[in-house]
Amino acid sequence: MSSYGRVMAVLKGGGDFDFTPCVNFSSTCTREFMELTGAWWPEAHRDPVRMARLGAAAHRFCGLDNVTVPFDTLVEAEAFGVQVDFHERGVLAWPIARRPLLRRVVPPIPPGDVARSGRVRVVAEAVRLLKEEFEGVAPVNVIVVPPFTSMSYYVFDHASFMSTLERDPGAVKEVLDEVVEVYAEIVDVYVEAGADVVTLYEMGGSASTLPPLLFDELVKPYIEKIAERAKLSVLSVPGDALPVIDRAARCGVNGVAIDQNTPISGARKIIDHAKPGLPLIGNLDPTEVICDGPEEKIRSAVKKAIDEGVSMVAPGSDFHLETPTKHIKTMVEAARTHTKK
């Protein structure tokens, strides 16, 4: 069975599969993959050919059951005009926003042509290249950061945004209402390019950041609207997701991904009550387990995740840049070994 068939069977619900899929719907980039492909940061953030080559490395060299682009969480904010520091001087580090676009929480000016704004077209071209190569072989996953996280972390000064949220949630909702169509249009561009799965990376939606009662008002309606535009979608909620996991399950997505801060067994029970059978994805610690190892620790963590109820094995978030390729292979092989249907 192909990786494509395996992942589609799980996300579409109820299909037969041979092994528990092993995926990473966050960034799949590592230093070793850059060496193996010759696609290095920062060029791979801005060149679609390098981006596609690097995004496919974990599948090509380790058998991971998907390919993923991009490798950072700033594409949507950049479309609104946020300037990005790609670390041009030989420092291998994640891109960061140079400065917030706005301090006062008012609706930002939307891009005139979403498809040509910032790096949206770069990501879309990388998706197209991956789709051409991996059609029916491995699903092409694209990461989109939804409005709440994108606005609160990158477009606005975070402290000002959170202060406004505490004082006047209605002002935040007004902003999100104004900008959500931009995010939906970005998904349209990626789907047209061939994206099989859209992962909505809502790191601001966990109880670590947002009171659960506000999730229904400031996260759920926007996830629902964006997810409608995707073929298949996964909602990734890093951090303490347990208090909002029932809400996440009702966002109209095809799966929910959690990190190591959320217990699998607890999340599985809540999801099965809120939306029985919805796929749960996670939740190996990307640093202390997958990067640091040793390999036996990785195998044990995979077995534990499957036994406790994950539908797909995955890191809790991005691969650590220093993750050894052999550790990713071990994770994939362990998922094959410990499959529990």
Q: Quickly count the helices.
A: 17
Structural class: alpha/beta
Main sheet: strand order: 1-4-5-6-7-8-9
- Largest pleated sheet: 7 strands, parallel
Please give the number of β-strands.
9
The low-confidence runs, each spanning 5 or more residues with pLDDT under 50, are: none
Q: State the share of residues found in helices, binned by percent.
A: 40-55%
The fold-level CATH name is TIM Barrel
Number of domains: 1
Write up this protein.
A seven-stranded parallel beta sheet has the order 1-4-5-6-7-8-9. The model has no long low-confidence stretch (mean pLDDT 96). Helix 4 packs across helix 7, helix 7 (120-134) crosses helix 10 and helix 16 runs parallel beside helix 17 (325-337). Helices cover 48% and strands 10% of the residues. The protein is of the alpha/beta class and 341 residues long. It has a single domain (3-337), classed as TIM Barrel (Alpha-Beta Barrel). The chain has 17 helices and nine strands. The chain has helices at 3-12, 31-37, 43-46, 48-55, 57-62, 75-79, 120-134, 147-155, 158-167, 169-193, 212-218, 220-227, 245-249, 264-274, 286-291, 295-308, 325-337; strands at 67-69, 84-85, 96-97, 140-144, 197-201, 232-237, 256-258, 280-284, 312-315.
Keywords:
two-stranded antiparallel ribbon, TIM Barrel, about 350 residues, alpha/beta, seven-stranded parallel β-sheet
